Amino acid sequence: MTKLIIEGQRELSGTIKISGAKNSAVALIPASLLSDGKVIIDNVPNISDIDALDEILVYLGATVKRDETSINIDSSTIINKEIPENISTKLRASYYFMSALLGKYKKVEMYFPGGCKIGARPIDQTLKAFKSLGARVTESNNKYLIEADELIGTTIYLDMPSVGATINTILASCKAKGTTIIRNAAKEPEVVNVAIFLNQMGARITGAGTSDICITGVEKLGPCYTEVIPDRIEAGTYLIAGALLGNNLKIDNIIPDHLKSLTSKLKEIGFHLDISNNSITISKTDNLKSVNIQTLGYPGFPTDLQQPITVLLTQCNGLSKVTETIYENRFQNVKYLNQMGANIEINDRTLSIMGPTSLKGEEVYATDLRAGACLVLAGLIAEGKTIINDVDYILRGYEKIVLKLQGVGAKIELQ
Ligand code: EPU
Description:
- The protein is α+β, with helices and mostly antiparallel strands.
- Helix content is 32%, strand content 25%.
- β9, α6 and β10 form a beta-alpha-beta unit.
- The protein binds uridine-diphosphate-2(N-acetylglucosaminyl) butyric acid.
- Uridine-diphosphate-2(N-acetylglucosaminyl) butyric acid binds next to α1, α5, α6 and α12.
């Protein structure tokens, strides 16, 4: 098993170029199946979650060509067959194949999706949407058979603004008969990226990025070229690294608007940010104020940055509180931060972080993707050597993390 070895307390300066967003790319790739033509997606991050989707496409019979940043998909040769458990459980986003195959062929057979174990993560809202559109859902031993004679547009009210259920409903309904309206839809930029992509193919989707999305079904979707938006979570993670150790660290190739909930917190803590159209530059500063954070759907503070920012809060003066409202099991990093010297208590869904505390290098374990990112940040500020095990979680979502950090002065390597 590979490990990350970090020698902490190195200043970070220079530029980190942000890759395409994992959570957009993992939806765009399955969505491409809805097209009857060839699709090119650019700015695709080279991470293991994309490899897993590539594997599913090839298994289904699509022709896939990848280079450094783009993926060309020709799905005209696809055979709609059952997706086996060992590949559908590799990642959460495999469930976008459920809706794409249902939308195109009116039938899909696959297993409950995988993904980081950060909570129960049910798919009831997605299944509710499929049923509302007219599909029959049969489940046995985690395997789903979903089929419809025809899919007919309707109004679907989501119980919570789920990213997955919103995207799945869009994919299942864009070739349905008539109009579908999603109320209480997720407003994340990744949802907008998917809607624009489908519209480029010929779909008729309006309102993406708001709580009400309207999809008017079309008969055919054609070829198109699109780009994945920059990864706001990767950008946020490196911005926090810059807050901890930066000397004019520039986070480049981003959409600063997508990071407003983080940048406003950084300002509240005491940082000065130099924000341009597509970059943010940050330096370490003293006298950090403690703050309270609650995770929420976009444009609120993202749950995916909750674990990374905890490291910064260990360096603030006084008591900070973090409330995780999205996932019930996203504090697995805390045990290791405390082992490294942090003073964090968990009370139900809230962390109480008393700072500042200096951290020291330890041997720790990445329990999930963002917990892993949190431990990388902790290792970067710790005194001495940090060894992070189970690095595969981190490589699912951070392209070239070692090279990117080495490039700005960090002492980090994969062993
Ligand atoms: N939920 C339900 N029922 C559903 C769907 C969701 O109860 O049918 C609950 C979930 O259990 C969770 C909340 O609603 O408590 C939000 O879940 P959502 O569906 O929005 O999350 P997701 O689609 O499973 C995506 C990202 C996550 C990110 C969340 C929230 C992908 C592949 N994953 O997950 O990313 O945390 O949206 O923004 O896009 C990550 O990148 O580390 C990651 C976990």
